[in-house]
Amino acid sequence: MSESKAGQPDETAKPRRRQARGERRIQQLLDAAASVFCRAGYTSASTNAIAREAGVSPGTLYQFFPNKEAIAVELGERLNRRMLETHGVVFTLENAALPLRELIDAVLDPMIEFNCANPAFLTLLQSSDAPGHFLEEHAALHDSIQDRIGELIGVRNPGLSPERRTHTANMAFALFKAGLGLILGHEGAEREAYVAELKTALYGYLAPVLGTEGAPARP
Amino acid sequence: MSESKAGQPDETAKPRRRQARGERRIQQLLDAAASVFCRAGYTSASTNAIAREAGVSPGTLYQFFPNKEAIAVELGERLNRRMLETHGVVFTLENAALPLRELIDAVLDPMIEFNCANPAFLTLLQSSDAPGHFLEEHAALHDSIQDRIGELIGVRNPGLSPERRTHTANMAFALFKAGLGLILGHEGAEREAYVAELKTALYGYLAPVLGTEGAPARP
DNA sequence: CAAGAATGCGAGCGGGCGCTCGTGTTTGTC
DNA sequence: GACAAACACGAGCGCCCGCTCGCATTCTTG
């Protein structure tokens, strides 16, 4: 059943065989899109500007994406996937047993690093202006992260009611995004200072709910 | 030697005499703008839509505002002024002497109430996409609030270095905006829950810096 | 090689945007 | 009432947007 040739995800009827050149173009276009979205926001970013930044013509852009929205969706999905692939391990359950301060370090440091390297991610997460359909994909992306946080909270404090857990996860994520905005808005020592402030804030918020100690598991 | 006629490039000259009807129209237009900005964000909001929502023609809108940007600026200024007039008292120094929990209640409750009644304010505060000039006015609005917070923090803990104070004020304000977004995104009991979560978060963040007690002098 | 698919181009389309302008109506002042 | 200023209208201008299309070029395959 499995094709011995290149993996063929037989989804809908889409007999489009991409060449290596095409994949490269897609990556160029997404990189350019990240840059332009970051600079102007989703609505103000123009597809012509994205194509220009990628060094291709508008027509070429539309060879690979059906419309502007699809660019943002694909960019968001790729960034999300890459973040989980690279740093998804921080959400594993063993981390839940760490003392709270170490848990926050373990989760935040990779996330902050990733977002500093990919500032477009936060831009997409915060883009409130958007055509309706993008908002749905956007919400899905949002929830996929929120679920990870809620899961971690649930393991850490199983006694929490589902509502409280949702509220806590939502608020923690919102606080994180807020701090991330400050962090990305500064550089060098200032940035480090805001990283420390954000950790302090999250510690202060989560300590009463999750406890400061780690799980009784001993090495 | 006053000018008899002929308005020249005199900056301070304001030869426009508004009638009561005009002031009413301006208010209608700003109300409509608040609604549209809130629904679509600054960039996606169209001046034609604002005029339509206000029940006037596009030409009438431009009788009172030179361009779209001026609408947002004026709206922001009016909201900011109104907030300070109505609730500015919460930043007075006597409040700084309250126990931290009461201080947070005293500051946050009126702010939350105001922002629930005027959700456009947060929209403007968060509007990242915008033409350059608007961003300057926007930053001024931002700073005017931030200064108030920094002042309060400074009175509460005079020993704080100016840098720390700035960082703390910035972070506290960012956390507040983040929580406010969640609050405005929910209603009824959910909203109340997020209000409580936000207060918890701010308390947890500020307690180590400002102390939980009311007495300002503390070894 | 030939042939077809994938890729690439860029002028230009339809449309909605911010905004204008000629004209008509209401209001304040004498 | 006479007159000017303020107010109101709405068709429409110029611009730029997202996006298309016809055609040229490059790759893959046999």
Automatic annotation (TrEMBL), chains A, B:
The keyword Ubl conjugation does not apply. Residues 1-23 are annotated as: Disordered. Keywords: DNA-binding, Transcription, Transcription regulation. Residues 46-65 bind DNA. InterPro entries: DNA-bd_HTH_TetR-type_CS, Homeodomain-like_sf, HTH-type_TetR-like_transc_reg, HTH_TetR, TetR_C_15. It holds the Pfam family TetR_C_15. Residues 23-83 form the HTH tetR-type domain. GO terms for molecular function: DNA-binding transcription factor activity; transcription cis-regulatory region binding. Transmembrane segments: none annotated. This is AcrR family transcriptional regulator. It comes from Streptomyces iranensis.
